[in-house]
Amino acid sequence: LVTGIIGIVVFSAYNSISPAAVQVPFAPLVGALTGAGSLIPVVGMKIVYFPVGAILTVGAVASGQATAIGYVLLFLILAFVVVDTIPDFLIRPYVSGNRTHVGLLMFAYILGPIVFGAYGIFLGPILLVLVAQFFRTVAPYVATGEPPDQSKLYEY
């Protein structure tokens, strides 16, 4: 959600300064799709803004303006730095915590649709988090008989 809002704002701001030949088509939609793509680990947002960058490159070459390629590079830099990297390193650790292993998350995204069909792309990661939390909190209590320590928000 946060990445989608950042994408909408950045792509709309980019459109306000770029020439018509290299403007992002449907900037709010592209920003929202970028936010949805952020749910897919590692390659998520890139599957949205790289094709848009390719479309903008075609528009820049077709326009014949020498400065248009610079605007395409500006778009790719903004998309990579402001929309992709900054939320991943500054916002995501506070929202999702750093306890979920990326490899397990990729496994959940791959295995989820195989087991649950189309809904598995959402159910797989949710079940992963539930099972991981179960083994962090309930399983030690069952094994030892001692109640777990109350977790603090800053630990996540």
UniProtKB/TrEMBL annotation:
It comes from the Archaea. The chain crosses the membrane at residues 47-63, 69-90, 102-135. InterPro entries: AI-2E-like. Its main location: membrane. Keywords: Membrane, Transmembrane, Transmembrane helix. It is a multi-pass membrane protein. One of its GO terms (cellular component) is membrane. Signal peptide: none annotated. It is found in: Membrane. Belongs to the autoinducer-2 exporter (AI-2E) (TC 2.A.86) family. This is HTR-like protein.
